[in-house]
Fold this sequence. Notes:
By secondary structure, the protein is mainly α. The chain has one domain (36-251). It contains 9 helices and no strands. The longest helix has 39 residues, at 78-116. It is elongated, with a radius of gyration of 21 Å.
Amino acid sequence: MHGIRSYAESLGAYAGLLLDVGRDILKHGINIRAVNRHIIAIGLSSLPIVLLTAVFTGMVLAIQTSYGLHRFGAKNYVGNLVGLALARELGPVLTAVMVCGRVGAGIAAELASMVVTEQVDAIRALGGNPIRQLVTPRIVAGMISLPLLTGLAVITGVLGGLVVAVLELNITAYTYYRSYLYAVLIRDVTDGLTKSIAFGLILVSIACFKGLRCRGGTEGVGLTTTSAVVTGCLMIFVSNFFITKLLILLHFQ
């Protein structure tokens, strides 16, 4: 019973954080300079690991799908499956998970350290707003960075699949390209980018929430960082199901 009450209180506090961020944006707007700084920290610094993950994911997808399709004489449809899988699911999800592991941990650790060293209390004592200075720019930057990273990841993954298709599967680049264009529609791309915007909001807001609620000194910083990454990754997978269901319902209305 105590665990359920604690969970409900945490959920309410998290919703309160999101409401505070929304009110801050409506009342004060967005600090463009701070957002740009965090876009570089979130997006540019995560680019190498995201692209490396995407290219090998595309290569593995090409090999695995060709193995399954070969039994039905449909090996030329590798581009269809690789393109759809990356655009709709694997691109947004894997990008979000990698960013959560790299950037979410950093945000949680940074804010937790500021709480432990009483820097957040000092901001309040000086009349500042920790939400505006520490949370809002990071969340906005996350919602901008994730779609950009996802788009680059999808392109890189498709090119990785192309390399395998040409060098390993004896499929011409033109055949792979045509099958990709035939299968992947504009709405597949927009659905993937919509998911990535939601994932950016989720992973950054959870990291900020966990960091600002850190307790227990330096030991608490480590626990907070771990909790932020685990919770963020879990919520990415859970929310992916509901967002996918919602998008499909909207398309068929």
